[in-house]
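Team,

Forwarding the record for the chain on the shared tracking sheet. I've put the sequence and predicted structure together so nobody has to dig through attachments.
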Amino acid sequence: MRAVAAVDVPPQRETRASAVPRVTFLSTVTFTGAIGRVCGYPLRLIISACVRLGIHPNVLTFTGVLVNIAAGWALALGEFFTAGLIMVAANIFDFIDGKVATETGQTSRFGGFWDSVIDRFSDLALSVGLICLYSSLGRTDYVLITSIAMVFATMTSYTRARAESLIPKCKVGFMERPERIVLFMIGAFTNRMAAVMWVIAVLSVVTVVNRIQYTYYELNNRPQPKAAGPFGFLVRAFYWTDERATLAYDLWVIAILAFVWLTPPDWLGDPMAVGGKGLIQWLLGR
């Protein structure tokens, strides 16, 4: 069967019952869940059209990476808004390929492998585009930050894939592929890419550490960290096990968006928005 993954890499085996569950917290009405439902309707129409036209899901996957390469090229030219539009188109392909495979009965193990490999190329294309831009501007600092984000984003996927060759499941950590892609689009559309790179770099490092720690504990039959005690909220926030579309997830999203949109670009030395004000400066009248 084609492994259709919602994030990073497709699971390689069934989840064991003893694995640490992803804690749900008020998973009823959340704004991220509402956004997902709103976006789901047009995507279902596109999926139906692809099924009727008989488009092979592997073709959709490959088309997605070509479009992402075009987005990377736009980023390299500093055309952020155009890059954002192209990324939206690219990630439609990225989302629908697995759904089309399921509805047409064309799921396969190779399909899951192909999808994961192509996703890595798509991610790298965007990062390389930004590195080219910052290099052309002589901004070694943001070349380094973007490179760190790229390395640890790739390692986020690799640590999960390698861990799941040893244990049934390793799905911990916040900064997975959907979050990275959405942040890239937010940075492109709002010209706050520097802040986005900081978020991706820092939280990707945390996610990789989470997955190494989780795998170590599982292989050595040690208990996983508990979100209890006076600092339990820090464990819960930085050893992420909650599902998407929960209140806890919404709070993390709000915190990230607040940093991206409230932090003045000058404070971060943003090479593409120097002199621009963050919302916090507008609120303070400065």
